[in-house]
Each structure stands twice: as structure tokens, then as C-alpha cells.
């Protein structure tokens, strides 16, 4: 059972740093148990389970790993926990951002180094509610993934590219995934090697690599590369809620567009994703006036 300890260069919040990797409640590949974070991953060396526990008294994060991918997971542990992130380069330009940073000094941007792990659930989230996408992710991993190695057997490792490609059409339908999204996932797994190469590119080149695939636009690429690269400037555009939240937090106005959001975040050029992340952590969101977006279920059609 390989293990190592990582010592952060400053304040560190394990749960908020890695929480963005969880795809909703009940994510089969991510769990928090007794304060520990567990991840089940498909690494280039195979499936692996990673257990992380913050030990402030020891000054670090203890990690243990199991399975063929254990060594890969531990080798990439510093990047996952934000060692290569540079939050000191960020300067808050708004009071709400300054206060969020002061209250959450230990949040760093995680870098998984894995593309498909974030790309596939991001595709599932296209044009549907979060609940629909999370349900699809859960069903597909439980039915077509594999048990995570070691004591993480209650977790599931997502299928390898061939496993995704072999999922029959009726299983996508049962999971509530329409043909447009399932076709995009199938194109992505057929080009898995080229997709994974984006983990070793800078943000601009990685974005071009992902968006060259039909069905992957700027929204999906940003949502993927925020996690894969820990990219501080990978701001999400085309989102239904983010412009409204950022506009309300920074100006108190409602109905902000993507263009207006980008103008508001212009002072954070190079760090726009980090600024947006802090604004979300501030909890300053516009009051809800309209009913929730209706949840569809194509599996019933």
C-alpha cells in the first residue's frame, strides 16, 4: 500500500480544494468519510483508489493509494492538492472577492492531470439540470464502471475508453442521456489519447484541442480544464447561472450577460476562474424569483 505525506506551502483546505471534483451527492467516484476524502480514478496505469486525510498537527495531508494506478496517483498528489497553484499572484479588486479570500485562505486550484475524468461528466452536464447530469453519472458508473481497488470497494472507477464505447444505446437512454451528448462522449473516447494529451498543454492549446471535437464548446472545455489543469483563467462562458451570480455579487444588478460578466472580470485577466470561484464561495447570490428549471427524463419517453 503506497503512501506519502504532502505538506502545503501555506493555509490549506482539503475539502474545498477537492470538492469541485465531486459530481453531485452520491458520486460513485468521490466520497467524504469521517473527514477523509476518497477518490476512485482511471489513471494511465489503470484503476486506483486514493485516500486523503488532513493532519494539521502533523503539518500535512496523508495519502494512501491502492490498485494498479496507486503509484501514478501518489506521484501526481502535489498537483492534485494545488502545489503548483500560485494564489499569491491574485489581487482582489472588489470587496466581496477580498472578503471571500480572507475567509477561505486555504482554497487552492486542484490539478488532476486527467482529461476524460472531467470531460465526460462535463458533457453529461450540457444543456440539462445538474440533478439530471448527476443522476446519469451515477447510473453509468454503477452499471458500467468497476469496483475501486482496496478498501474503496464501495466506490466505482469509471469505464476505460473501450468500456464507454461498448455501452449500448438503450443504456444511455435509461440514464437520461440524449443522443447528442452520448455521441459526443463516444467521439471523445475514440480520440482518448489525443484528449488526454491536453493535460500536458497550456490553457490555450488545450482549449483548442478539446473544442476541435464536434460537440465540445467553450463551456465544456473550461469546465474540464479548470479541473484537469487547475487553470486559474479558465472562466466558464455560456453558463445559465454564473453570469447572473457574478453580476449580482459585483454590482447588485440582475440579468448579467456573458459579455458583461467578462467585462466585470477584466481586472482579473489571467485569474478569472479563481475570481469566479471566490465569488461563488462568498455565497452572495441573487434571490430566486422564477421556478426551478423543470427536470426532464428521456428514459420515460
Q: Can you name the CATH architecture of the domain at 116-216?
A: Orthogonal Bundle
**What is the alpha-carbon Rg in Å?**
19 Å
Largest sheet: 5 strands, antiparallel
CATH top level label of the domain at 116-216 = Mainly Alpha
Q: Would you report the number of β strands?
A: 7
- SSE pattern: EHEEEEHHHHHEEHHHHHHHHH
Strand order of the largest sheet: 1-5-4-3-2
Uncertain regions spanning at least 5 consecutive residues: none
Number of helices: 15
CATH topology of the domain at 116-216: Endonuclease III, domain 1
GO cellular component, one term: protein-DNA complex
GO molecular function: alkylated DNA binding; DNA-3-methyladenine glycosylase activity; DNA-7-methylguanine glycosylase activity
Keywords: DNA damage, DNA repair
InterPro entries: Alkylbase_DNA_Glycosylase/TA, DNA_glycosylase
Brief write-up:
The chain has helices at 14-18, 70-75, 77-80, 95-103, 116-124, 130-144, 161-165, 169-174, 179-190, 192-197, 203-211, 218-228, 242-251, 258-264, 272-282, and strands spanning 3-6, 30-33, 36-43, 46-55, 60-66, 146-147, 156-157.
Describe this protein's structure.
With 301 residues, the chain is α+β, with helices and mostly antiparallel strands. It is built from 15 helices and seven strands. Helices cover 42% and strands 12% of the residues. Strands 1-5-4-3-2 form a five-stranded antiparallel β-sheet. 43% of the residues are buried.
What topology does this entry show?
Elements: E1 3-6, H1 14-18, E2 30-33, E3 36-43, E4 46-55, E5 60-66, H2 70-75, H3 77-80, H4 95-103, H5 116-124, H6 130-144, E6 146-147, E7 156-157, H7 161-165, H8 169-174, H9 179-190, H10 192-197, H11 203-211, H12 218-228, H13 242-251, H14 258-264, H15 272-282
Amino acid at each position: 500500500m503506497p503512501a506519502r505525506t504532502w505538506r502545503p506551502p501555506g493555509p490549506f483546505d482539503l475539502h474545498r480544494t477537492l470538492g469541485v471534483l465531486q459530481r453531485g451527492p452520491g458520486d460513485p467516484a468521490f466520497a467524504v468519510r469521517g473527514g477523509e476524502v476518497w477518490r476512485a480514478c482511471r489513471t494511465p496505469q489503470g484503476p486506483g483508489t486514493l485516500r486523503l486525510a488532513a493532519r494539521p498537527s502533523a503539518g500535512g495531508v496523508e495519502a494512501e493509494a491502492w490498485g494498479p494506478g496507486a503509484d501514478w496517483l501518489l506521484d501526481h498528489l502535489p498537483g492534485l492538492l494545488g502545489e503548483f497553484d500560485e494564489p499569491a499572484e491574485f489581487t482582489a479588486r472588489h470587496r466581496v472577492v477580498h472578503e471571500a479570500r480572507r475567509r477561505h485562505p486555504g482554497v487552492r486550484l486542484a490539478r488532476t492531470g486527467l482529461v476524460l475524468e472531467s470531460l465526460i461528466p462535463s458533457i453529461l452536464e450540457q444543456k440539462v439540470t445538474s440533478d439530471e447530469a448527476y443522476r446519469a453519472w451515477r447510473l453509468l458508473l454503477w452499471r458500467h464502471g468497476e469496483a475501486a481497488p482496496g478498501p474503496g470497494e464501495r466506490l466505482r472507477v469509471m469505464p476505460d475508453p473501450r468500456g464507454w464505447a461498448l455501452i449500448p444505446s438503450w443504456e444511455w437512454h435509461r440514464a437520461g442521456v440524449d443522443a447528442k451528448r452520448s455521441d459526443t462522449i463516444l467521439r471523445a473516447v475514440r480520440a482518448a489519447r489525443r484528449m488526454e494529451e491536453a493535460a500536458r498543454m497550456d490553457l490555450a492549446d488545450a482549449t483548442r484541442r478539446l473544442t476541435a471535437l464536434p460537440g465540445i464548446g467553450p463551456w465544456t472545455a473550461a469546465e474540464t480544464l479548470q479541473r484537469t489543469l487547475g487553470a486559474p483563467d479558465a472562466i466558464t462562458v455560456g453558463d445559465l447561472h454564473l453570469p447572473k451570480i457574478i453580476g449580482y455579487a459585483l454590482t447588485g444588478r440582475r440579468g448579467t450577460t456573458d459579455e458583461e460578466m467578462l467585462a466585470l472580470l477584466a481586472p482579473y485577466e489571467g485569474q478569472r476562474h479563481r475570481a469566479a470561484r471566490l465569488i461563488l464561495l462568498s455565497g452572495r447570490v441573487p434571490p430566486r424569483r422564477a421556478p426551478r428549471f423543470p427536470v426532464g427524463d428521456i428514459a420515460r419517453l
